[in-house]
Write a structure and sequence with these properties.
single chain; mainly alpha; 3 helices
């Protein structure tokens, strides 16, 4: 481990259900779940979550999602948006 590297923390992301309203019947939430979980785990491991973010019951407005029908791209983008909302990087608080 180099001087600027931090030890890797094991992160477990548990998502009970992923509900995607407004995407139409062509999008299978089950195909979005695996990339969503993997990307959210990766982002939390890399960037972490502050204790304030973990204790807060509010989110900041997440960045917009891309217009795509690709479940992998959507899952990854959604995970980054959720992380931004949790950390306050998304914008105003909701």
């Amino acid at each position: 481990m180099g001087l600027n590297e931090q030890p890797r923390v094991d992160v477990r992301v548990d998502i009970g259900a992923l509900v995607l309203d407004g995407f139409g019947p062509h999008l299978d939430a089950g195909r979005v779940m695996a990339p969503f979980r993997a990307e959210l785990t990766r982002v939390v491991q890399e960037r972490g979550l502050s204790s304030e973010a973990c204790a807060s019951d509010t989110l900041s407005r997440p960045p917009p999602l891309p217009r795509t029908n690709n479940p992998v791209r959507l899952g990854e983008s959604l995970a980054r948006a959720v992380h931004a909302g949790l950390t306050g990087d998304g914008g105003e608080r909701l």
